[in-house]
Design brief:
The protein contains 17 helices and 19 strands. By secondary structure, it is of the alpha/beta class. The chain folds into three domains: 198 residues, FAD/NAD(P)-binding domain; 150 residues, Polyamine Oxidase, Chain A, domain 2 (Alpha-Beta Complex); 84 residues, protoporphyrinogen ix oxidase, domain 3, CATH 1.10.3110.10. Strand 1, helix 1 and strand 2 form a beta-alpha-beta unit.
């Protein structure tokens, strides 16, 4: 191990991998450390003989970002993408003991039973609802004020549960949907904000001379886990180390000293720049209290536990045609699952012929105790749900359960202040960078973008090569350490997480 490394990134989820790859691609030396036995974090895929490929965490990516597609080309996995077909655009909501399709056109919306006629007429009043400027609101209160009770109960609530596993009564609108909240406060309504945003995007495309690109819903032939594995291979074994159990991090003589168990032996790693791409409470605990800025607010960011239950069935044993993406459950319907995705309909090329594969999500912020039930109980719960909702008969061919006790960070009231505390920590130690799903969005594309943005900050503030070369032999004098401040206010949210 070199005496002093250039940049160390802790945490090999997609945020840390994205950051490390961006730094490496720009010519900066980097070492990525991961506590677990593999990279990818919650992104983990498995091929089950006789069934197909399952994803234990996130199931799909939805993006049209040219930079992301360019990264896939660099990694050699672009051709392995599996784009969801027409099934990806058909979604259902469980309502009053049946699956109701979500409308995907104005005409279909008018005919849909998802909202009563009075609620549809209520939507026409949205442009006249006064914005609540300079006021944070819960996600539920914001949409109830603008769209009405029925729209929140039947549309917003299941969406928030499906994406954030969250409680819309507790989630902060400013933190969960910052652009939307700011846009409505500025323009006065959702409708005017959406129109102005579409016009601005059109002008930007015309100025760049680029065609309009629609986001695609996709995965990979071997599941989403193929992506982090490709990043690990591209970085190479000298730049990625798994099984690293860090015990402490401290500043020492102008650099960072990381101590812990590295493959069975106690070791110390020293680095010029440190990026922590791990859950907020873990980052606060690792850094301890040795900062002018208080790290305790990071400990207060809650995480919702989530379990995924994967079931494989014979096609003839499931009565429903499974003609879509899957379904979500509003909390008012008191279902045992947050929702179920029909994986074999989205990506039939990943599933054996004659087999249907589904993934159900259990737990979340509203019923966290459900997620931590024993695996056999979770399987029984999901099987019962399939029999009631999808007409399943007999027993599944295969069942797998994975539980994430700290599944998804919750951007609840006070989240802005907690992120500001992270910015103050960074300002007090200008060679420290904090990033992850707790900052800038919980979706996989958000985490990927957050990792890239953090890497860009490192490159902007420290250059493409450090003044301390990786591989400097013991005894060779380091070049002078130069303290550097961060641009912008130390009390505002740092741009790296957006």
């Amino acid at each position: 191990m070199p005496n002093v490394l250039d940049t160390v990134v802790v945490g090999a989820g997609i945020t840390g991998l994205s950051c490390a790859w961006r730094l490496h691609s720009a010519g900066r030396s980097v070492l990525l450390l991961e506590r677990g036995s593999r990279v990818g974090g919650v992104i983990h895929s498995e091929r089950i003989p006789g069934v197909g490929v399952i994803d234990h965490g996130p199931q799909t990516l939805r993006s049209g970002d040219p930079a992301l597609l360019a990264e896939f080309r660099e990694l050699g996995i672009e051709e392995d993408r599996c784009v969801a077909g027409a099934a990806g655009s058909h979604r259902y909501v469980f309502w009053q003991d049946r699956l109701v399709p979500l409308p995907h056109s104005p005409v279909a919306f008018l005919r849909s039973p998802i909202l009563p006629t009075s609620a549809k007429l209520r939507l026409l009043l949205e442009p006249f609802a006064r914005p609540r400027r300079d006021q944070d609101e819960s996600v539920e209160d914001f949409f109830r004020h603008r769209l009405g009770r029925h729209a929140v109960e039947r549309l917003v609530d299941p969406f928030v549960s499906g994406v954030y596993a969250g409680d819309p009564r507790q989630l902060s609108m400013r933190s969960v949907f910052p652009a939307l909240k700011e846009g409505v406060d500025r323009k006065g309504s959702l409708l005017r904000w959406a129109v102005s945003r579409a016009r601005a995007a059109g002008r930007a495309r015309r100025e760049r001379g680029t065609p309009r690109s629609r986001p695609q819903l996709f995965s990979f032939k071997e599941g989403l886990g193929q992506w982090p594995r490709a990043l690990e291979a591209a970085l190479g074994p000298d730049r990625v180390r798994t099984g690293v159990d860090l015990k402490a991090v401290r500043r020492a003589e102008g650099h960072w000293a990381l101590t812990g168990d590295l493959g069975g032996s106690q070791e110390e790693i020293r680095a010029r720049v440190l990026v922590l791409a791990i859950p907020a409470p873990g980052a606060a605990a690792l850094l301890g209290g040795g900062f002018p800025a208080d790290s305790r607010p990071l400990m207060d960011i809650p995480y919702a536990p989530v379990s995924t239950v994967h079931l494989a069935w014979r096609r003839e044993d499931v009565g429903h045609p499974l003609d879509g993406f899957g379904y979500l459950c509003p909390s008012s319907q008191d279902r045992p699952v947050l929702g179920t995705l029909w994986i074999s309909s989205l990506f039939p090329q990943r599933v054996e012929e004659g087999v249907v594969l589904t993934t159900s999500f259990v737990g979340g912020a509203r019923v966290p105790e459900q997620a931590t039930r024993p695996p056999q109980e979770l399987v029984g719960l999901a099987v019962g749900e399939h029999r009631r909702t999808l007409g399943a008969r007999g027993e599944p061919l295969e069942a797998r359960v994975v539980t994430y006790p700290r599944g998804i960070p919750q951007y609840e009231f006070g989240h802005e202040q907690r992120v500001e505390a992270a910015a103050r920590m960074e300002a007090s130690a200008p060679d420290l960078y904090l990033t992850g799903s707790w900052r800038g969005g919980v979706s996989v594309p958000d985490c990927w973008a957050g990792g890239r943005a953090t890497a860009d900050r490192v490159l902007s503030e420290w250059g493409r090569s450090s003044s301390l070369e990786v591989g400097r032999t013991e005894g060779s004098p380091p070049r002078p350490y130069r303290e550097r401040g961060r641009p912008g206010s130390p009390t505002g949210p740092a741009e790296g997480g957006t």
